Amino acid sequence: MTVFTLSSLEREALLLPRLIELTERHRARGAEYANILAATGHAPGRIYRDTAELPWLPVRLFKTRRLKSIPDEAVFKVLTSSGTTGDVSRIYLDREAAAAQTRMLGRTLQTVLGPQRLPMLVVDTKAIIKDRRSFSARGAGVLGMATFGRDHVWALDEHGRPDVDAVRGFLAAHGDRPFLVFGFTFMVWLYLYELARDHRLDLANGILIHSGGWKKLADRRVGNAEFRRAFRTGTGLTRIHNFYGMVEQIGVVYLEGPDGDSLYCPDFADVVIRDPDTWEPLPPGRPGLVEVLSTLPESYPGHVLLTEDLGVVHGVDDGAWPGKRFSILGRLPRAEARGCSDTFVGAAV
Predict the structure, then answer these.
(1) pTM for this structure?
(2) Which residues of 60-88 are buried (b: 16+ CB within 10 A; e: fewer)?
(3) Three-class SS of residue 19?
């Protein structure tokens, strides 16, 4: 059952009351979040006419504040974002929240994978998931996706080197029918595309799910169009779906549609593009800061977050799937992103 069904108006009607409910839930269960709301003019009982009016948190706050809405004894898992020591987000999940994010991620991916678990080629090393309680963003992404595959084979050995024999063996066993390939974008290019091209491996029956940004491929002049073209002509792989997501909203992925040129929101999520100077919502066609909304975060106040990413909505209810059709353009320069976060931190003190 797909989760890409709601028009923009239907989505707004569904999300607004639930996000208001979550705002009040997190206010009641987290003193620091309650202080932020009070300091920024979001008193209890305030009327919100649409989701764009809801109070947002900068994602950077999760790097500097311990934001959670559950008691310490209920913490089941702590997820961390990528970054240097001390400069990582920490996301606290109880058992219910962890189960919900896995369930909804599964429903999202079934849209392109189908209901059955497929044989899975992981473009990473098994060493990335050794600590099962505290994961990096990369490790969490790999482990989360691994639950939707079977007969897993890792394309890199324990030392992070390409393992052509492992990939050959996987294709010999499963390459004649649909199989799942997952990895982070730059690793998929460096360690799967180049390997498959050089060794003439046939990936035509694969379904590739990938994410992680394009910055590490910029010096190779590889963007989304070239990435898809090269895989098609060099390996036969055509079913490719990029996605956008973050550990601060674990369980939500904004998935590239079958048309291959835009990301789409699942029914339980949405995006708002904001002017980085005025914070006002922007119409389609105008780039700005990406705000992400999701009804999933119940154990921490991550339901309305202002990211440090630039994006643009291309259209609404006019693509392969309903809702907003958008792209991520890159990161906001770090100095500006810090200033955006400091606006909230300063107000909350």
Answers:
(1) 0.86
(2) bbbbebebbbbeeeeeebebbbeeeeeeb
(3) helix
